[in-house]
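Teaching assistant here, posting this on the class forum so everyone can see the example we discussed in section. The complex has two components, and the goal was to see what a joint structure prediction looks like when all of them are supplied at once.
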Amino acid sequence: MLCVAYDGSCFHGWQAQGNAPSVQSAISSLLSSILGSETMVYGSGRTDAGVHALSQVCHFDTRSQIAPEKFALVLNTRLPKSIRILSSAEAPEGFHARFTTMSREYWYLLKRSAEMLPWDDRHVTPVKEFPSLELLNEYASLLQGTHDFTTFASARDPSESKTRDIYVSGWEMTADGFGFDVLKYRTAGNAFLYHQVRSMVGTMIECAAAGESAADFRARLEAKDRKMALRTAKADGLYLADVSYDEEKYRWFEEAYGRKD
Amino acid sequence: MLCVAYDGSCFHGWQAQGNAPSVQSAISSLLSSILGSETMVYGSGRTDAGVHALSQVCHFDTRSQIAPEKFALVLNTRLPKSIRILSSAEAPEGFHARFTTMSREYWYLLKRSAEMLPWDDRHVTPVKEFPSLELLNEYASLLQGTHDFTTFASARDPSESKTRDIYVSGWEMTADGFGFDVLKYRTAGNAFLYHQVRSMVGTMIECAAAGESAADFRARLEAKDRKMALRTAKADGLYLADVSYDEEKYRWFEEAYGRKD
């Protein structure tokens, strides 16, 4: 298993499709050349074009004699700088990067337009002014829990049930490495619908800018109607920040929230 | 006067020279087109190819009726994202971005190789391991003050006197926007010799990795001999972080250190 960070602005997403440059095909073809046999990596899930990863997890099968922890260095030497393998290790028996995933965590980063630095382009989403952090967190806490997220699903989401568990949902003010404010949304859940995080972020930002009450925001969620979502935030500010295979990590959630579905 | 941030990896330095892309020529040619007459911006000093700026200052002369503080927005709309005007203002009478500069501050950023993120390439310099912060700061404090910095000057430095005042010289552990450690050197002085900051950083890093004593490091400085400098650190990690025109900012330095030259 590999823990992979990548710059989404350089790829047409995680998933290999045709000839478009993808992270999956870049890693798979290099592995195939190193191992001397066709090797495919399988990720914890897709990320769209433009979406970054701090910690995507993928796995591959091999009979290679290379020590599992050496793969990070071997791959990094030949991968483009836009893909970095942060660690490699032998996967536990029965592990599958996608099917055994217990939770995914995403971050969404925003900066004030006037404070965008030259290297922020396509890595942070600019907003003219930050809306009220307090109001944003009132909305965010309404999203935590087990809900039908139809309101925030793309029309292209293929899943029958739109019910998902959100374990963590909150906004905080942080800073980039140069001392400028970064408004960060952090959410973790068992799984997310297509475009769900970007739709939640875009809607929260727009509602907060308009000063909408938490009750009105809750009505959007409860309507289970895509027309109640506002803007879908750009891919640029979105990071897949963590993928966890630990069954205990969000055990408290089941106890606190039960299951509604 | 403009306060400008730029991504040094996209330009052949600040200074306009021939057809090589430079920050100075990019801003000057856009201003000339906006103002309808040949306009040149003058910076506080050059930065080499690859060196970034968080806060380069430059000025230009104009009879334009555009309000000074509007120039930032007007320029940002048409400049490439690799150059951002952080602010614009009317310069005080007699101001010259280069000749009235009182101090310049530089940052140098290092990360552990294994923690380099995809967007760190050409913006942070990787080192296998961080050397001792304590030792680095013993060296750094020896560089503070008024010294002949011949040891750390490039052979191409044209200045007759190699004596400069260093007001601030210190290392600290900070973090990037994603929680990874960044080892940062911060130095401010009245002026720096060609490649001086990069030579001081490269030498300090190499000496600390070898565990050299502060006394031996002091001997390098006092030798006033370029052969006593070790590696010149890469341009990638270097940022022009502040340019000050405030005569009072480092007044304490004159009182504390006097002038040796």
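For the discussion questions: Chain A has two domains: 2-88, 103-257. The two ends of chain A are 32 Å apart (CA to CA). Think about how each of these relates to the inputs above.
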